[in-house]
Design brief:
The chain is mainly α. The protein is built from six helices and no strands. The longest helix has 34 residues.
């Protein structure tokens, strides 16, 4: 009986915590499709059966179980474009650095602005109070969330970039192409 190959969608589960080697774009994105479909299915079952709390728990457990293979396939995806796997923490690092810089230079002004906001008025949907809150949060958006979002865009572009043709410092080409393979 011939041994069947594991579909690309499930390769990250087979290589659960394997951070070595390379992962093709199709392996990476099909694994995310698998996670998306399972999450949708769990949500639909919960909605149809009226089991909101148990299905939320199942969804959370599924997400927790998928954390390490998602991290591993992301690292291998960066390896495929000949970049270090440490790029996976780039958006988080930018967020942390931006938060530190923001609060060092603007922390007292932010805290003072937040103290002046009337939360009862916001709950009562007072437009002036809501505008005050957005005015207090706007600099944080500009100096913290925007750089973190841009860092996420950079990593997204890396994840959709075609892998290095042929072998690179992280291993052989997962597509099986040789280093001198032509376009056609």
């Amino acid at each position: 009986m011939a041994k069947t190959a594991t579909p690309l969608m499930f390769q990250p589960l087979v290589k659960y915590v394997d951070f070595n080697g390379r992962a093709r774009r199709s392996e990476y994105w099909l694994f995310f499709l698998f996670q998306f479909l399972v999450s949708i299915a769990l949500g639909l079952v919960g909605a149809i059966a009226g089991l909101k709390a148990p299905m939320e728990a199942a969804t959370n457990l599924f997400s927790l179980a998928m954390f390490l293979p998602t991290l591993a396939v992301s690292v291998r995806r960066f390896h495929d474009i000949n970049r270090t796997g440490w790029w996976v923490i780039f958006p988080l690092a930018v967020l942390i650095v931006a938060l530190i810089i923001y609060f060092v230079f603007n922390g007292t002004a932010f805290i003072a602005a937040m103290k002046d906001i009337d939360m009862q008025a916001i709950k009562a949907e007072d437009e002036t109070a809501i505008m005050d809150m957005f005015t207090a949060l706007a600099p944080m958006f500009l100096w913290v969330w925007l750089p973190a979002w841009l860092a996420s865009v950079v990593t997204f572009v890396f994840h959709v970039t075609d892998g290095t043709r042929g072998a690179n410092r992280f291993g052989s080409d997962p597509k099986g192409a040789s280093a001198d393979a032509g376009v056609f």
